[in-house]
Structures are given as C-alpha cells and as structure tokens.
Recover the amino acids of this structure.
C-alpha cells in the first residue's frame, strides 16, 4: 500500500474539488447583475425620476458584487476542496474571507428585498392597507438585517477565532444561526411573493391581462425555490467540512443574485416595450378615447399633493392644432398605478374602476386664429330720415 493511499480516506479524496459550484454562478451573475441595473436605471430615467428604491438597489448591487468577489478569492485559496488538504495559510485566508462574505451577503439580500417592496409601494401607492403592510415588512427586514449582521460579526469571541483555528474562542452554534437565517429569509420571501396577488386578482381587467401580469409579480417564485433549497440543504446535512460542504453556499449565491435579477426584470420589460412596441406589446391595453361623453373625467395628482380633474374629451370648436406633446401639465412625467375601486384620492365624476390606469398629460398647441373683420353695413341715403 502506497503512502498516498494511506493519507487518503478513500481514493481521489485529495483531488475532490467543488470550486465550480461557486465559480459558475458567480461569473454569470457578476456579469448579469450590473447590466440589469444599468437597464433599470436607464428605463427609470426615460420614464420618470429616480427614487429611493433605485438608490437602494444600487447599494444592494455594491454588496452583491463585493460578495461575489469574495467567493472568487475563496476559491483561489482552496475553497471547494477538503479542508484537510488545504495548506494552513490558504485555509486561514479562505475562512477569513468566508466570514466577511457572510456579512456582505446578508446586506445585499435584505437591501434587495427592501428595494423590491418599495417598488410594490410605488405601484400600489393608493391602497392604504397594502402600503402599511409593505412598509411594516420593510422595517422588519431592515431591523433583522442589522441584528443578523451583528450576530454574524460576534459569532465568536474573540472575533478572530472564527477564522483562525489556532485561537481558542467561544462560538455560537453556527448550525442554528444558519438555519434561523434561512427560515426567516424563506418566510419573508413567501410574504413578499404573496402580497400583490390579491390586488392583481381583484383588478377589473380581462383574464388574459391578469395572466400577463402574473410573471411580473411572480418572479419571486424562483427566489422562494432557491431559499427553500438552501434551508433544505442546511437541515439535512450538518456542515462538518466548511470548505467542501458548500451546497448551502451554492444556494446562497443563487438566492441573493437571483433576487437582484428579479428586482430589475420588470424595468427591462418596460424598456423593451418602449424600444420595440410592435414586438413587445404592453400586457395592459391602452384605450384612446376620441368621443367621450361630457362629464367623464380622470384625476391627476398635482405637485402640491392635491388633485386636478379635466375632461377626457376636449372640444376644439373647429380649431386646428399644430402639435400634441406628451409632457405632463404640471411638468411631471406619466405614471403607472394600480388602483382599487373606491380608493381615497381618486376623483372623477364616474366611479374610478379598479384596474391598471395610466395617467398621461398632453400639451396641445393651437394655430392662431385671426378674427374676421367686422362686416360693414352701408346705409343708403334714401333711407336717411328727412329733416
């Protein structure tokens, strides 16, 4: 029996390497995520102004890329191999990077969820109950992000004992911490996934349009699946070899990157519809009213927070218009909102139907009309009164 066979628990043990479990998804998402955010920002700037959700998504991408880079560095130091065959200095570096990667991963994932919820709040801004629920969930996610980050940093006392195996320290049960984080993440994913569906199903629009909306709000299904698989991988197998038992790490990479992809995809669709409208038709039909009856109207929120109404049909009195622009009457851009019937804040002569409405302002310029000269009446001298 050779010396090599004595050192190996089984043939091929020293050569086993799962680094591709980390490299393939991180390479793919490191290229894809910045591209999608650029498309999202471009689409948002083309239709409206950037808001806090867009800025939070940019911060989430920063931590997303930072985590991916750390996983690259871990592979360079032997991550994916058995810890017993990794040189001591490389094992020290891999575990140290892995420690900080857990922190940036939590921040990236939770900020992505916050940005997605802010997107929901913007779309369903007139549904008070939905808005309160979403904002409450946002605060919970932010608080949990801070607390889980602090616990992750202080998982071992002294902190350096988490990656330096030569330092004796008191550490929390990592198995319990990982499972708790995974379960909380899965529950919040399920809540985020289910929030918009009651409103979508309640819309007074054709079934075909409802089905077309499902993919927009149902992208979270993929995140839920990745989160569930991550929890399942942690529950069925205890991690005894932190550099080789990386199935949970694989699903972690997929989870936070896929969440960011799902956050940006609706904006990608908006850009595609605007760029190639004949190819990517909007799932929500637009109506063009050419002869609405008098009294019909719609509302638009003014800059001061009030509402202004004007008729759908504009009587032109046989005057010719030279140009129609699409700028808002108050200088703001058009917005898409999902409203519910009878919601406070919608003013119209007729009840505002539940559905997806698009508020569009138009600037109409008329050609100047020259008033005709007054008619001159000639009075005959024969008609003049006689003195």
């Amino acid at each position: 029996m050779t010396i090599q066979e004595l050192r190996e628990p089984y043939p091929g043990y020293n050569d086993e390497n799962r680094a591709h479990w980390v490299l393939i998804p991180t390479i793919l998402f490191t290229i894809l995520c910045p591209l999608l955010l650029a498309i999202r920002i471009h689409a948002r700037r083309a239709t409206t102004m950037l808001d806090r959700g867009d800025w939070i998504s940019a911060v989430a991408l920063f931590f997303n890329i930072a985590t991916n880079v750390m996983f690259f560095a871990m592979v360079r130091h032997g991550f994916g191999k058995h810890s017993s065959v990794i040189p001591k200095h490389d094992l020290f570096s891999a575990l140290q990077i892995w420690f900080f990667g857990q922190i940036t991963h939590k921040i990236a994932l939770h900020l992505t969820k916050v940005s997605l919820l802010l997107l929901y709040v913007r779309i369903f801004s007139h549904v008070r109950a939905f808005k309160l629920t979403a904002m409450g969930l946002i605060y919970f996610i932010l608080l949990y992000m801070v607390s889980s980050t602090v616990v992750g940093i202080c998982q071992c006392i002294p902190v350096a004992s988490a990656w330096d195996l030569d330092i004796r320290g008191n550490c929390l049960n990592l198995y319990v911490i990982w499972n708790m984080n995974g379960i909380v993440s899965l529950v919040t994913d399920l809540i985020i996934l289910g929030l918009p569906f009651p409103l979508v199903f309640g819309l007074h629009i054709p079934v075909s349009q409802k089905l077309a909306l499902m993919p927009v709000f149902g992208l979270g299904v993929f995140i839920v699946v990745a989160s569930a698989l991550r929890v399942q991988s942690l529950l069925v197998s205890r991690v005894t070899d932190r550099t080789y038992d990386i199935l949970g790490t694989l699903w972690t990479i997929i989870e936070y990157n896929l969440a960011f992809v799902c956050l940006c995809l609706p904006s990608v669709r908006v850009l595609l519809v605007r760029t190639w409208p004949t190819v990517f038709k909007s799932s929500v039909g637009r109506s063009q009213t050419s002869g609405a009856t008098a009294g019909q109207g719609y509302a638009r929120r003014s800059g001061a927070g009030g509402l202004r109404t004007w008729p759908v049909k504009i009587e032109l009195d046989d005057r010719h218009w030279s140009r129609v622009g699409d700028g808002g009457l108050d200088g703001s851009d058009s917005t898409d909102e999902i409203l519910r019937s009878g919601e406070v804040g919608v003013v119209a002569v007729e009840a505002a139907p539940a559905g997806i409405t698009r508020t569009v302002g138009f600037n109409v310029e008329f050609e100047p009309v020259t008033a005709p000269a007054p008619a001159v009446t000639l009075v005959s001298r024969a008609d003049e009164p006689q003195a």
Notes: Confidence is low (pLDDT under 50) at residues 1-6, 282-361. The first helix runs from residue 3 to 7. The beta strands are 156-157, 170-171, 297-301, 307-311, 321-325, 335-339, 355-359, 363-366.
